[in-house]
Structure formats: structure tokens, C-alpha cells
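Running this now, will post back.
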Amino acid sequence: MNENQVVARKEQPAELVRQLPVIAPAVDILENESEILLHADLPGVLRDDIAIHIDNGKMTLSGTRRLRMTGAATWREFAEVEFRRTFAVPQSIDVDKIHADLKDGVLRLHLPKSESAKPRQIEITAG
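Update: finished.
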């Protein structure tokens, strides 16, 4: 072999990483005088597999559905998936009081408004 010949080696990857498909969950957003309520459809996602991050006016909601199946699959339409969606969060939200609950595959995220953002009645006095 002379100096001008290049020998190419095919390197094996250290680890094959399987990427899950990312799907935007269906969401309903409701607003009343005291809060914004977000309902996100996350079927099959466990509470410990959900993450909610708020940073710089953006909220990212993500959850991973992991399937624990036994036996050989003869037909598969229901797969592991990552649900992910990002929303703009108004500055009127009291971030310290946000809370969430998960029931029957629906995440309910309560975003309470700060006191200064709530509507109020101004009383007029006689002068």
C-alpha cells in the first residue's frame, strides 16, 4: 500500500439510540377571572413520565408513553411515543402557584392569575 491510498474503516456506533416519535397532544385551554386551565390529552402516560417546564415566558409540556408488553405482537398500532407541546405563558400568571393533576389520561394544568391581573370593581365615592 502506498501513501496515496486511503484505507477507510467503518466504525460501529457506540450505542444505537432509538428515537421516539414526537406528537403534539390535543389541548383545550379555558380562561376565567382567576385562572387559565389547560387540559392536555396524554393517553397512557404515567405521572412520573410528565415534565412541565416554564422559562422566559414559555411553557413546555412533555410526557412519554412507555409500553410494557409481553408476548409476540401480531399487530401493532399503539406504540411508545413522546407527547410535546410549547405554549407562551402570559406574565399575568402567578408561576409559584401553578399546579397540575392527572386523571384518566388527561392532564389538568391550573395557571392562576396574579392578583394584579384579576379584574376588579372600582368603587366610586361621593365627594
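The two ends are 104 Å apart (CA to CA). More later if anyone needs it.
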